[in-house]
Write a structure and sequence with these properties.
The structure holds two protein chains of two kinds.
Chain A (H helix, E strand, L loop, with lengths): L4 H9 L10 E5 L2 E5 L3 H11 L10 E4 L9 H16 L4 E2 L8 H7 L8 E4 L13 E4 L2 H10 L1 E5 L3 E7 L8 H12 L8 E5 L8 H9 L8 E3 L4 H10 L17 E6 L6 E3 L7 E3 L10 E4 L1 H4 L2 H11 L9 E4 L4 H9 L2 H8 L2 E2 L20 E4 L15 E4 L2 H10 L10
Parallel strand pairs in A: 2-3, 2-5, 3-4, 5-6, 8-9, 8-11, 9-10, 14-15, 14-17, 15-16, 17-18
Antiparallel strand pairs in A: 1-7, 12-13
Chain B lengths: L1 E8 L6 H4 L10 H5 L10 H4 L5 E3 L12 H8 L4 E4 L4 H10 L3 E3 L1 H6 L5 E5 L4 E4 L5 E3 L5 H8 L3 H9 L3
Parallel strand pairs in B: 1-2, 2-3, 3-4
Antiparallel strand pairs in B: 1-5, 5-6, 6-7
Helix pairs in contact in B: 7-8
Classes of the chains: A alpha/beta, B alpha/beta.
């Protein structure tokens, strides 16, 4: 029976030759992930189970990244609980504040997720690793707890939508624009319960960071996972970061898809998602005089080195508008150092931006840039729900780094093409 | 297993950030989470909700983050179940795992209005609008899911099963 790429990974990890959409399977996990928000609840559930240890101390990753460095006493207590658990269970991949990064940027960088892996994480953006040709999906704390104990998880095998990417992106258009464009096209439940499989000759023209950004936001279309085929770009990345041997799965040519959607990459415009859903998209050129108060460049979606370089291209030799707050958040310590060595921090600070230590921070309204009532932000993050970055009456506009940086300079949502 | 209560009705794509805003996720305490449930879209909810009440949503209820705090906040607020046209997948899984009954029925969503008194039978999937006298049918839970919900979540269920209860 013909299978999609996702179905092949699930079948293999379930010890089966074939699986089909709708079937329930129990799979072996290569990695179980949690953060400082979801792990405390998982640890409580784990304790109730009365098991002695975790299934494999090398195959659990715990990354306190949301409210860290601890934003308040309660957050500190949560992190303390996580730290004590990681120490007691001798979790190999626990990342303290000086070693950490935003989980979905950190794990690939540390080589903990590679092509062919099956990963669950108690964070909805766990789907990011599909960029490497892995199956990864978000779960809740109870599933994380059970997985830490057993090393297994059950799944309903998803059907898939195939996105055939063709050609090349226009200058200044990035993976963020493509995924916002797609979500705008299919809606926030357009891929509910399904896989989003990205294929086509256009994939070769997307950087690994573009692919991380796109797979990351598959959840914003309701998808179970987003996944890219493995090519030289992927294998070069994996070899550079991991000693493990990647396993390459390829979708069968006659695999069945619920829908096939073709995307001509050259026709994707610079795109922005208006409040309060990521599918409320329009071309940046249609955003007229939308005044903003803050810009955030970072997050698991767009905190990679490529994103920071793109922002720096725009900020170089320019100043942000008086009264604007522009917050740059490199996603990991490694990216932070790299950006510093490349001189990007000089560009950011000269332009009037600040540079933060890695944290999810403002993306989910935690800290490091919260919005007041009726304030607006352009952010390279992934959600623009009501109250997402602060006050319930504040607004978040989602865009890529070029648009975010250009908007910080003009003070209104702007295309980088409009700058002098 | 049944719940009886009044209806709170919301639209499509009720996300986990409005069910329980992230700014309150610095705790895992159930009653503290419940005290902020739905407050960004409905400040009256937590002031007026009573045990057994029913939240009704549209498409894709619970979309967004994987926070299990969302079904926990709803359950700890006293709500007896959620009825929607469809649920986001992580929320669906988390609801079962934490023992929050959820039912899909577009007919019921169409036929229920804010404040209606409703009785829901999880064993049969029957949703009875006591105010209007109309009845709607949702797919009932299979037996093993009913047991998980009765046991107050997956971990308790697994523990009880292991202990031979």
């Amino acid at each position: 029976m013909a299978m999609t790429m996702t179905q092949k990974i699930l079948a293999d990890h379930a010890g089966m030759d074939t699986v089909s959409a709708g079937q329930f399977v129990n799979c072996k996990l290569d990695l179980v992930l949690g953060n400082d928000i979801t792990s405390p609840m998982a640890i409580s559930e784990f304790s109730k189970m009365g098991v002695d240890g975790v299934f494999d101390k090398d195959k659990i990753a715990i990354v306190p990244d949301h409210f860290t460095p601890n934003k308040d006493i309660k957050a500190a207590e949560q992190c303390k609980k996580v730290r004590e658990f990681a120490t007691a269970k001798e979790i190999t991949n626990y990342f303290e504040v000086g070693e950490m990064g935003i989980e979905h940027a950190l794990l690939p960088e540390k080589g903990l997720v590679i092509s062919g892996d099956l990963i669950i994480g108690a964070d909805s953006h766990t789907c990011t690793y599909g960029a490497l040709g892995a199956f990864s999906t978000g779960v809740g704390s109870t599933d994380m707890a059970a997985a830490m104990a057993t090393g297994n998880a059950w799944f309903k095998v998803p059907s898939a939508i195939k996105f055939v990417l063709k050609g090349k992106l226009s200058p200044l258009v990035t993976g963020k624009d493509v995924i916002l464009h797609i979500i705008g096209m299919i809606g926030v439940d357009g891929a509910l319960y399904r896989s989003m499989e990205f294929v086509g000759d256009g994939v070769a023209n997307l950087t690994i960071d573009d692919r991380f950004t796109m797979a990351n936001m598959a959840i914003e279309a309701g998808a179970k996972n987003g996944i890219f085929p493995v090519d030289d770009v992927t294998l070069n990345y994996v070899k550079e970061h991991s000693k493990r041997e990647p396993k390459v799965y390829t979708a069968d040519e006659d695999a069945s898809y619920d829908k096939v959607i073709e995307i001509e990459l050259s026709k994707v415009p610079l795109t922005v998602a208006y409040p309060h859903l990521p599918d409320n998209t329009r071309a940046v050129s249609e955003a007229k005089d939308m005044a903003i108060d803050q810009v955030v460049i970072g997050s698991c979606t767009n905190g990679h080195i490529t994103d920071l370089r793109q922002a720096a291209e725009i900020f170089k030799g320019r100043k942000i508008k008086k009264g604007m707050r522009a917050i740059i958040i490199p996603a990991t310590q490694k990216i932070w150092l790299q950006a510093m060595h490349e001189g990007l921090f000089d560009i950011f600070v000269d332009a009037g931006c600040i540079v933060s230590t890695p944290t999810c921070g403002p993306c989910l309204g935690g800290h490091m840039g919260i919005l007041a009532k009726s304030e607006r932000a352009v952010a390279t993050t992934n959600r623009n729900f009501v109250g997402r970055m602060g006050h319930p009456e504040s607004e978040v506009y989602l865009a890529g780094p070029y648009v975010a940086a250009a908007s910080a300079i003009t003070g209104v949502i702007s295309s980088p093409e409009e700058l002098d | 297993m049944k719940t009886v209560g009044k209806v709170y009705k919301y639209g499509d794509h009720v996300d986990t950030d409005v069910i329980i805003p992230a700014r309150f996720l610095n705790t895992s305490d159930h009653s503290e989470l419940a005290s902020h449930c739905m407050e960004d879209i409905d400040t009256e909810y937590i002031k007026t909700v009573e045990k057994g009440d029913i939240i009704v949503g549209g498409e894709n209820f619970g979309c967004g983050s994987s926070r299990e705090h969302a079904p926990i906040a709803i359950k700890a607020s006293g709500a007896g179940c959620v009825i929607a046209r469809s649920f986001a997948r992580i929320f669906f899984r988390n609801s079962i795992n934490t023992g929050l009954p959820i039912l899909e029925s577009s007919e019921a969503v169409d036929g229920l209005t804010k404040g209606d008194k409703v009785e829901v039978d999880f064993t049969t999937g029957e949703i009875k609008n006591i105010t209007t006298g109309k009845t709607y049918q949702a797919q009932p839970f299979p037996e093993f899911l009913q047991k998980i919900i009765q046991a107050d979540g997956l971990i308790n269920y697994a523990k009880q099963t292991a202990e031979g209860k």
